[in-house]
Amino acid sequence: MFPRITLGLLLAAGAALHAQESPVAFTGAKIIPITGEPVENGLLLVRHGKIIAVGDARAVRLAADVQIVDVTGKVIMPGLVDSHSHVGGVQGADGSNPIQPDARALDSLDARDPRLQKARAGGITAVNVMPGSGHLISGQTLYLKLRAARVVDDLLIKLPDGSPAGGLKMANGTNPMRPTPNFPGTRAKSAALVRDQFIKAQEYRAKRDRAQGDPDKLPARDLGLEQLVEVLEGKRVVQHHTHRQDDILTVLRLAREFGFKVVLHHVSDAWQVADEIAAADAACSIIIVDSPGGKLEIRDISFANGAVLEKAGVTVGFHTDDGVTDSRHFLRSAGLGVRAGMSRAGALKALTLANAEMLGLADRIGSLEEGKDADFIILSGDPLSVYTKVEQTWVEGQKVFDFADPQDRLYALGGPGAGDAQRLQLCCYGNAWDLIIAANQGGAQ
Amino acid sequence: MNRSPSRNLHRSLLCAAAVLIAAPFAQADESTMPVAIHGEMVYPVSGPPISGGLVLVRDGKITYVGPTEDMVYTMDHRVIRAKVVTPGLIDARATVGLSGLLNQPHDQDMLEKSAPLQPELRAIDAYNPRDPLVAYVRSYGITTVHTGHAPGMLVSGQTMVVKTLGGTADGDTLKPAAMTAVSLGSAGTTDQAGKSPGTRAKAMAMLRAELLKAQEYARKLALPDETKRPARDLRQETMLRALDGTQPLLITAHRQQDIMSALRLAAEFNLSIVLDGCSDAPLVLDEIKAAGFPVVLHPTMARSFGDMENLSMETATRLRTAGISFAIQSGYESYVPKTRVVLFEAGVAAGKGLGFESALAAVTLNAARIIGVDDRIGSLEVGKDADLALYDGDPFEYTTRCVAVFINGREFPGEHHTP
User: Fold this and answer.
1) Are residues A193 and A260 in the same domain?
2) Domain check: are A45 and A153 in the same one?
3) B108, B185, B333 ranked by CB distance to A445: nearest
4) Whether A144 and A66 share a structural domain
């Protein structure tokens, strides 16, 4: 299981430590690799931002110039992957139209949002930040690495063609239905509008293909339809907000009709239609909220969603939907999942590898394996315990959060100076958070 | 030791939920039976934890708390076993029963917005004991809530202390009028043009004027000439109870200047108050300590924005260290989740430095003291109400389940997770 390593070959002359010019070995911790059984007294070897080896510390002799970090008594697991969040204050579509695939989260993200550091404090190293759910199609999402960042470009995950990785945010049910012009008033109208748009995209693609590159015959560029064509071609995954069991089945029906890849988000009623979800081979990104209700569509939400989906064989991950839940409590989702019947291994996978799969990034992140990015967290104990704290968060071999640092501690626990520097943007109506803030503070409903 | 009949021995708590589905009917006779509850760990809160403890319950009251080996009980006891037994949890500030699960207009009674000062509004006239959220929080071990009007108006109404029995407001209530809810800061002001209070200073001026009116009302009530006494005034009567200390003001204040305003008000009118929320408490610990008022602290996992932007998950620990009496609350939520669960909020506080026993006290005995019902509930002591929560492990651990709940000796199911 553990490869013998000739570490001398790996050492760079001069041994500058930054970005692991020479390898760094974290030894003595319990390592939870996700892809295999946990290893007591483990070793994680990192260099150049990648994992070189993972295994049993007793099975290897380290060369003299490997930097050793003794983490005996700690727990190391992969950095957490949050498949649905609104940190960074991302925005997408505006109130003019229910279908706006041209809007990009990329063009709105504040890389200095304190909530990004709070996410790091929660052990999150990669995140799908999304526009809200107040539209049928609210724009392009972004998959980010929570590296130390000054501007959004520092956070991007680049695809082979250089474009930033991301999905397409869609929604159905009550959130996109509203009494403003152009917006649907019913579920059937919502579906019809989406189908119309995908048919346009099919025609756009056909025209483009028929032109065979001839500029005179190519259709005029359409930023929105281009995105939908990417979806039709499987290059961009639909990240679909949906709650009620009938709405879930509508998503699956449209995905089948147009052949797109979809991840179901929130999926409050998933426990009622788990077999249908499994049959459609759709992954589920679910949320744990502390009580049902608050809106009609999540009247029947259950802590058992994870357990039911796991048993049905569905790929299931947790998300924070930050600020619906706080990124700093992300580990808690797995604990509550186990409380309601999920396996420990399944719950931990639902914080990491399952979400990486939903973002198409499982070859790079989500588990501790040789060759993957060195994204990991160091915990004081069992990841499912309320008494455990995230001590350090590492992204690509760089420490981005350290509880021992007073400023990081402030972000981890809160206090004067840790507040949100900006308005929270998410969810249902663009200004939903203004309503919530008003309601909590001033009693508006 | 006298063991109970064998039919009871297999009443493992693991199957308690199944047994209890038919509870309201099948248990009709059992509800009057005395109960013997064995806990691998029993936390009376009023005293040290008991390993291998026993709690005996008869006629809705606790008749014994102590080591199992020190007590022999009779054959007629129904026997229950659990890993951990605690007093029923108390949520020191909630809106459940007024702010319903569906979040539709018909189930949202936590805030009347027709006027900024309406102390005459009583929670008991709005509390719906059968709202699903009442049973929901009960299933996690919460047996009593101090619930009522939400923050959001300068004086939003009166609170009540009620057991989560799910019966009737009158029958379930411990204290029909516990406190009068006051909101300072953003929650107590309005941004509607031409409406008052539009500023913090105006809000305080209105509040002070209201208390002055109540003082004047009191003076007139005491006039020797009966004909000169004023007619009954529900609003003044309520504020009068704040002045004479029988029904304290529960003042929601998050920013430090609002906490200081609350203390200033209390000093001016010689009020005993309870501070609610208190996100900025760490900035004014000395002042709170000197004033001697208890704090009903915001939920540990509350969202940090607006007046609460400075909140810290460590504040409970800071209050304990400072020697300030405090409890933890679920608070008010306007959206998702529709209510927080005070068990979870205390758990995170425990994990962020408060520790198990202090966190437990913050949702049991300390809460009972602050809301003035510690003669009846809040600890496992002989003579107190038989309100207990049973867990299959450390109650604060995410993976632990509440397996059964007792209120007045009557058993309710613990948490269940669909399907």
Assistant:
1) yes
2) no
3) B108
4) no
CA nearest to B305, candidates A412, A423, A321: A423
B333–A293 C-beta distance less than 8 A: no
For residue B358, the surrounding DSSP H or E stretch is: helix B356-362
CATH number of domain containing A42:
2.30.40.10
By Cβ distance, the residue of B150, B309, B313 closest to A419 is B309
Query: Position A423: which residue type?
Result: R
Q: Which CATH number fits domain B90-370: 1.10.10.10, 1.10.3080.10, 3.20.20.140, 3.90.550.10?
A: 3.20.20.140
Selecting from A384, A414, A417 the residue whose C-beta is nearest the C-beta of B398 gives A384
What's the rounded Cα separation, in Å, for the pair A101 and A174? 19
- May I ask the CATH class of domain B6-87+380-413? mainly beta
Q: Average pLDDT for residues A10-30, to the nearest whole number? A: 66
CA distance A222 to A241: 25
* CA dihedral (B23, B29, B32, B34) positive or negative: negative
| pLDDT recorded at residue A13 | 33
Decide if A10 contacts A387 (C-beta within 8 A). no
CA distance A17 to B306: 42
Answer yes or no: do A171 and A28 share one domain: no
Q: Test B310 with A295 for CB contact under 8 angstroms.
A: no
Domain for residue A213, yes or no? yes
CATH number at residue A94: 3.20.20.140
Q: Is B361 on the interface with A (CB under 8 A)?
A: no
Rounded average pLDDT per 10-residue block, chain B, 419 residues: 38 37 47 92 98 98 97 95 99 98 96 97 98 98 98 97 98 98 96 95 98 98 97 98 98 98 98 98 98 98 93 98 98 95 98 98 98 98 98 98 98 92
Would the CB atoms of A441 and B187 count as touching at under 8 Å? yes
